[in-house]
Amino acid sequence: MVRELNHWIDGKSVPRGDQEALTVSGPFDRSPIARVALGSRDHVDLAVDAARRAARAWADRAPVERGRLLAAVARALRERAQEFVDVEVEETGKLVAEMRGGLQVAADYFEYYGGVVRALFGETINLGAGDHAFTSREPYGVVAVITPWNGPLTQAARGLAAALAAGNTVVIKPSEFTSGTTVMLAQLCEEMGVPAGVVNVVLGAGPEVGGTLVEHPSVRLVAFTGSVVTGRRVAESAARRLIPTILELGGKSANVVFADADLDRVVDSALTICTGAGQQCAALSRLLVQEEVHDALLERVAAQMRARVPGERLAPMTTEAQFEKVIEYFDVAAQDGARLVTGGHAAGGAQAAGRYVEPTVYADVTPEMRIFQEEVFGPVLAVSRFATEGEAIELANDSEYGLVAGVWTGDSARALRVASRLEAGQVIVNGGRTGIETPFGGYKASGLGREKGFESLLHYTQLKTTVVSTR
């Protein structure tokens, strides 16, 4: 069945009317799965106006009251998990197990920010007798949240939960290719008692809807997740209006493996390039291995990658453009002289009807090669060797990106020393567990600001200083 997706504005579904719709084809067999309303400037105006009207009352609510509503959304997400899982698997192609985990993460965001917002305090400043000074954190008002196609529910939940907890109202623009669960989430928020106008969703293409939203005079903060190219355009538009942005952009993250590392655990880490078919900005897509263990580790990783059968243990590419991009990078890698160890083709046989590619490993990858420098966004691992600690750091930092890095070593002093020199917003040593509590964001071209953790609330609020004379 082809689902009809409409905007969600001011607490109700808003049909597209005579506006054009986009027919979206699914990743499993390219058959039509949804018709998505393509919004216009008028729809953006309606949504922002609804959010603006709702902003004062929502900001005036006690944090504990907002928190209870977010906790209710978290419970409802878990209770209705299968509905969300089914839609997002159909749209993105994720493995069911992957999406079940993603659903729990989405619920965790609402649960976490619903509780931790009670700890969002200001400070008092001692100016001496006769004056009382204090700071307070206040919401911006209307926040635009623009999310990508690769993780629509978790990305929407991440920005929405923090923004709402901080007292903002929100207009979300999801990718036109994976809009279903974002609309469902907005509807669920209202069912759980979030007032009409606090959460709005406008569907459509990036330039027409996203660009208009960023430029709208009533939008006071923009949170964008997506490519560096689009992120720069968002930043430029926001800069002209002198409004802040939270930008979570691309990555070409290095996983640095020293000879004394636990190689069993390293193999598991390397295989995370297959999670979501590698369509994740935090993917550890460069494996840098010390030469003493390089050949042995490469052989083990390649064997495990070959065992990831597309369709059974590897999801397809979500969009046709991304499928074609990964296929193009196979040709690029060959032209640049990278050594193909396994994979390197579109999947054949029963999976040929879908957007499946083979899990792929390239070796002898050097910094001059495009697959070393550019984000492929697929199940493609680029393996390089190094001799010394200094060389490892130089290779890891030889990138315009700086989102995530991994370090594997049995030497705790070296682990901390290397972590301190890596140009990345998040460094994971020996597989340390991250979560919604750990701030996430990039250095260099990987973005600005931070999502996740308590730090996110600071980015979704602005600081006010008040000074009262008691003389």
Which tags fit this structure?
Aldehyde Dehydrogenase, Chain A, domain 2, alpha/beta, 15 helices, about 475 residues, globular, Aldehyde Dehydrogenase, Chain A, domain 1, about 40% helix
Give structural notes.
The protein is an alpha/beta fold and about 475 residues long. The protein has two domains: about 270 residues, 3-Layer(aba) Sandwich (Aldehyde Dehydrogenase, Chain A, domain 1); about 180 residues, Aldehyde Dehydrogenase, Chain A, domain 2. Helix content is about 40%, strand content about 20%. The longest helix has 21 residues.
Strand content: 15-25%
Task: Report the structural category.
Answer: alpha/beta
Please state the second-level CATH architecture of the largest domain. 3-Layer(aba) Sandwich
User: What composes the largest sheet?
Assistant: 7 strands, mixed
Total number of beta strands: 23
CATH topology of the largest domain: Aldehyde Dehydrogenase, Chain A, domain 1
Rg from Cα: 23 Å
Query: How do the strands line up in the largest sheet?
Result: 15-16-17-14-13-19-20
Give the end-to-end Cα distance, rounded to a whole number of Å.
72 Å
